[in-house]
Amino acid sequence: MTINQILPFFSTLIMLIFTVSVFRRWLVRRKPHFLFWAIGLAMFGAGSFAEAYFSAVGWSPIIFFIWYLFGAALNAGWIGHGTLLLLVRKRWVHVVTALLVVGSLVATVMMIQLMPKLDVTAYNPALPISEQYRAIMPSVQDGATVRLTTPFFNIYGMITLVGGALYSAWLFLRKKVLPNRVVGNVLIAAGALAIAFASALTRLGAGEYLYLGELIAAVLMYAGFWLAGAPGTEAEKAQMTQAAGVS
Prior knowledge:
Layout: H1 3-29, H2 32-56, H3 61-87, H4 92-114, H5 133-136, H6 150-175, H7 179-203, H8 210-228, H9 234-246
Helix pairs in contact: 1-2, 1-8, 2-3, 3-4, 3-6, 6-7, 7-8
């Protein structure tokens, strides 16, 4: 087993811990952004689990379904939308939420329709799934219309997650309060950029870097979430209150 086949196991473990942490916060606070983050992170973890399964066991159509729909298509959009819900309190966000849910359901139906058209004979157990999924899936013209949806979810997720994290970091930096949240949000943005870059390389045919990018993203985003969520000192909280009053 190569190092590239081992990496998904570590990513899966980190994402499991990460997802449970975020979901527990949703149970306590009942804020919608925590729920969308938890769902998106669970999708990310499901994709990593699918990669680990392919490495350890072999081909499975159900696992491929999970890998592409949750790991390649949907997770970035749901994680990024959680950040939008955190930062924006406008009514139009509800419309975007509805579009995300409906779009995800449409992508699911497309994926179900695609499954009978997969070329199972093209699967090579010696290669990571990220390096050979194009050979297994038909082209868009031959029925893989779900491939048209992935750029929308991924671009939306990257813009909202990276943009939201950097915007939050800038706010705390400008007010000179809670430096842990500045660093935490920068780490989250860096993690999102890492997986976005690795995914772009995969689409260009360099799928061997995807698993490393996923592991880096998982580590950075979890570290950033933990750091940004750490309680501030009493002095920092007082500074935050004062800064909020001034602004």
